[in-house]
Amino acid sequence: MAERAPTPASVQRRDRLLASVKRRWLLIAGLVISDAILINIAFAVAYWIRYDLQWLRAVDPAFVVPFSVYIPFALILTVVLILAYRRQGLYSLRQGTTWFDELYAIINGTTTGIVIMVVLVFVFRPTFYSRLIFFYAGALIVVFLSLSRMIKNIWLRYMRRQGIGVARAVIVGAGEVGRTVMRTLVAHPDLGYEIVGFVDDDPAKGTTDIGRFKGMGSLDNLAVLVQDEAIDEVIITLPWQYHRKIMAIMAQCERENVRARIVPDLFQMTLSRMAITEMSGIPLIGVKQVRISPFIRLVKRGIDVFFSLLVLVFTAPLIALISLTIKLDSPGPVLFRQDRVGKGGKPFTLYKFRSMMIGADEQKQLLRDLNEANGPIFKIKDDPRITRVGRLLRRFSLDELPQFYNVLRGDMSIIGPRPPLPEEVAQYQPWHMRRLEIAPGITGLWQVSGRSELPFDEMALLDIYYVEQWSPALDFKILLRTIPTILFGDGAY
Question: What is the pTM of this model?
Answer without folding.
Answer: 0.63
